[in-house]
Amino acid sequence: MATRTDLHAPGQHDDALSTISEALGRLRYGVIQLTVHDGKLMQIDVTERRRFAG
């Protein structure tokens, strides 16, 4: 999942928070990484880890 969001544009802040919240709700183990350039959220990367008992 990747999203480009300008947090200074009207409504974009809510969209970014919603996307992050949805990712957190689905993720059991992993990483959510936010990429910011010049104070603007440019990308959201979600990496999910799945481990299997051996």
Concise synopsis of the structure shown:
The chain is of the alpha+beta class and 54 residues long. The relative contact order is 0.28.
Written description of the protein model:
This protein has one helix at residues 12-26, and strands spanning 30-37, 40-48. The model has no long low-confidence stretch (mean pLDDT 85). The chain is elongated and about 50 Å long. Helices cover 28% and strands 31% of the residues. The protein starts with 11 loop residues before the first helix and ends in a 6-residue tail after the last strand. It is of the alpha+beta class.
Characteristics of this structure?
single chain; 54 residues; alpha+beta; two-stranded antiparallel ribbon; 28% helix; 31% strand
One letter per element, helices H and strands E, the order comes to HEE
Low-confidence stretches: none
Largest sheet: 2 strands, antiparallel
Shape: elongated
The helix tally amounts to: 1
Strand fraction band? 25-35%
Output the radius of gyration.
13 Å
**Roughly what is the average pLDDT, rounded to an integer?**
85
Helix content: 25-40%
Helix/strand-derived category reads alpha+beta
Q: Kindly give the count of domains.
A: 1
Note the gap between the termini: 30 Å
